Amino acid sequence: MRFRYENKYLIDVPTAELLRARAAAIMKPDENGGSYIVHNLYLDDRYDSCYYGKYMGRLERNKYRLRYYNGDTSFIRLERKHKEGLLSYKDTMTISNEQYEMIKQGNLEFILNEEAPLWQTLAMVYRLKGLRPTAMFAYKRRAYVYEPGDVRFTFDSPPFQMGETLPFHYEPLKMSYGKEAYSPMLLEVKYSRFLPEVIKRLLNGLPLARTDMSKYCVVREKGVLPHGEI
Fold it and tell me: How far, in Å, CA of 167 to CA of 186, rounded?
């Protein structure tokens, strides 16, 4: 496993455009072309442990999600994101569209017979706490990388609807986690051991508001936008 640091900032559009212009001088678009839509299906247990772990500030916690890009369901990834404070790492594997559809419908019994380690991790949670799908949303992302320092910038729009719904209805959580208005953009700065000075200089002088915001928690509380125009 490889832990990475992850710092989050709320930024406005002019600041994002300025930082992207700065980044383009020394960074390059990521392997996906730099601009794309991220489609997400999040899972949580019957106790909403993923949500409340974040809300209560638990330093060590997990998130479970399925993800694909630009509407292309021929390549879907299952991910477990493990966080310990500002450090995180991901376990990931590809799954079939059929498996994705079963999970989306809440039919998770099949994972009990899967042998891959990540499936078995989910199977344990499913046995103990009743894992189920709880949130579905998408967002627009622009991403840049700086390979010498293993640095990654991502600029994410607010979450919006994917054009489909889950077969279950969950009442919005009313814990007021989303204290900050998630508008109009979220910047994530990810790196492995230290942030190179050349990258720090890109961020100098910009009005960056540090946040611990979770898109999943915001969606569970506030819902999503009706379209992806932002």
Answer: 29
Digit-coded pLDDT (tens) for 99-117: 999 999 999 999 999 999 9
C-alpha closest to that of 66 among 122, 112, 116: 122
Q: What is the DSSP letter of 1?
A: -
Using one digit for the tens of pLDDT, what is the confidence trace for 70-95? 999 999 999 999 999 888 999 999 99
pTM of the model: 0.91
Separation between Cα atoms, residue 37 and residue 160, nearest integer Å: 10
- DSSP per residue over 127-138, as a string? HHH--EEEEEEE
Tell me the H-state helices in the chain.
13-26, 49-55, 97-104, 117-129, 197-203, 215-222
Question: 86: which 2 tokens?
Answer: 């500002």
Length reported for the chain: 230
Segments in 27-87 forming alpha helices (H): 49-55
* Angle (CA) 77 93 148, round 5°: 90
